[in-house]
Design a protein that fits this description.
The structure is a single chain. 24% of the residues lie in helices and 15% in strands. The strands form four sheets. An eight-stranded mixed sheet has the order 9-10-6-5-2-3-4-11, with helices on both faces. Strands 12-14-13 form a three-stranded antiparallel sheet. It has a two-stranded antiparallel ribbon with strand order 1-15. Helix 2 links the parallel strand 2 and strand 3.
């Protein structure tokens, strides 16, 4: 098929971000505190998880002197935060893990944000087929864009190791949707010019990346997910993410679904299932005794603010808030604006609810809120008012990055998560929104011997029996796309 027949397909937000958003949304809703990233690559997801929450979780009974409707309000989705206390990453590439170690270091943290909770980060080197006791009973394991890079022998170990030996409460998996590939070409045509024929020769399919050992249809992925869920005692829900911005002129959008398939596995509880998992995974644990153990490369410790969990009096907090109104010469402020004054957060011990209680209990303020409104957008008025003018300086505020611009659109039938390399055709520039070819094979060293799921460069690539893997790195970079498709 000629290049002129390749259809323009773009994603907004970029596809790698849509997958990351899916992961983070589940972690927030499930209030996960411990995460293991299998195939973490350069640690981009881990780096995101290292960012501190804006406040402590709601306090235990007894911290608030007089709980009210406002302090006990169920958090809206927009107010939910992540509160990880332990995270870990595993990858086979020591080169990729060097970046993960650097990017998850406390030295790399944004000092503008106050950390209210301690965090431990562990970076491990090794293959996923090797049993690691440190991952047993992890709350959540994430494997994004990993399974399609695994040869059959290693893929066969995925469920016994992850769901049997480790048996996390949650398992999140993503993989490309083969069916969506048709979206890049008119009906009846296949992109053989820039796609990658199945390297295993098992099918006549054309894949998105040269290292993919398979790309499954929606039905195939669902069958695999339901099979391992039933065998290891999990419920599973599957769907797709990543719809093209452009409307398909042949009306295939609903049929093809999203570009990435995603699955969330939830562990079934009960002694019977626990016993089954233990017995069925025994051989995996026994085999690992004769294999090279995972190597803990680095442990990072993040310390919490010295005032975390140590609140001041309501009077002290109210005075600090009124002083800030005076300093800024304001008569009304959003609650979030007040909270991100570091000294006020510190007096509250890191609890947002304590600030609400102090403001509600003071005759100097009127707290205005409406149903469905984010707590941070509630407005605090000074009773009686005062002549005011808008402040010209602000303290460090906790706010999301600016909305993605159209320049962040991803295009093309190609490795959509790779960083901004010039693959030889001058077309690839991260999320720039320019036309991108899906053919990355022209860049000889792009996924060389030091890519993730690859052994050290001194080793031979392709010996899967000894952990010398040849796939690419998992990535969740904050500024550039991840390195998996």
């Amino acid at each position: 098929m000629g290049g002129e027949a390749e259809l323009r397909v773009t994603f907004f937000p970029p596809l790698y971000l849509q997958r990351r958003i899916w992961v983070l949304d589940i972690l927030r809703r499930e209030q996960v505190t411990e995460i293991v990233d299998i195939g973490c690559g350069e640690g981009q997801l881990l780096a995101v998880l290292c960012q501190p929450a804006s406040s402590l979780p709601p306090p235990d009974p007894g911290v608030l002197a007089s709980p009210s409707d406002a302090t006990l309000t169920v958090l809206e989705v927009g107010d939910l935060d992540l509160h990880p206390t332990r995270i870990a990453g595993l990858d086979i590439s020591s080169h990729a893990l060097a970046s993960a170690i650097e990017d998850t270091s406390p030295a790399a943290a944004n000092k503008s944000y106050t950390r209210w909770e301690p965090l431990e980060v562990n970076i491990w080197h090794g293959g996923l087929e090797i049993f690691n006791p440190a991952f047993v009973n992890a709350e959540c394991i994430v494997a994004t864009e990993v399974i399609e890079h695994l040869p059959e022998a290693i893929l066969a170990d995925f469920a016994p190791v992850i769901m049997g030996a480790y048996h996390p409460r949650l398992l999140l998996v993503t993989t490309p949707s083969y069916g969506f590939n048709a979206r890049f070409s008119p009906p009846g045509l296949t992109n053989t010019a820039t796609g990658f024929p199945d390297p295993t020769k098992r099918t006549d399919r054309v894949f998105r990346h040269h290292d993919h050992k398979f790309e499954w249809t929606i039905e195939e992925f669902q069958e695999w997910c339901e099979g391992i869920a039933q065998e290891w005692g999990y419920d599973v829900d599957t769907t797709t993410v990543g719809r093209a911005q452009e409307k398909d002129e042949w009306g295939r959008d609903e049929e093809l679904g999203g570009a990435s398939q995603v699955a969330v596995f939830r562990r079934l509880e009960g002694e019977a299932w626990a016993t089954t998992r233990e017995e069925k995974s025994a051989s995996v644990k026994e085999r690992s005794k004769s294999e090279k153990e995972h190597h803990l490369l680095k442990t990072h410790h993040y310390d919490a603010h010295v005032r975390a969990g140590k609140r001041g009096s309501a009077e002290e907090i109210a005075k600090a808030v009124l002083d800030k109104f005076d300093e800024w010469e304001e008569v009304d402020l959003r609650l979030e604006e007040i909270w991100f004054v570091e000294e006020i957060g510190a007096i509250c011990g890191g609890w947002f609810e304590v600030l609400i209680e102090a403001i509600e209990g003071s005759a100097k303020f009127d707290l205005q809120r409406s149903k469905g409104q984010r707590r941070g957008d509630w407005v605090v008025l000074v009773v009686g008012g005062r002549p005011g003018k808008k402040k010209t300086t602000t303290t460090s505020e906790w706010a999301p990055a600016d909305d993605l611009s159209e320049e962040d659109v991803q295009e093309g039938y190609r490795s959509d998560d790779d960083p901004g390399f010039d693959w030889g055709n001058g077309l690839y520039s991260s999320d720039s929104g320019v036309d991108l070819s899906w053919d990355i094979s022209k860049y000889d060293n792009a996924w060389g011997k030091e890519s993730a799921w690859t052994c050290d460069s001194s080793d031979d690539v392709g010996d899967w029996g000894t952990g010398k893997w040849s796939t690419l790195s998992a990535a969740w970079d904050l500024d550039s796309p991840e390195q998996k498709t």
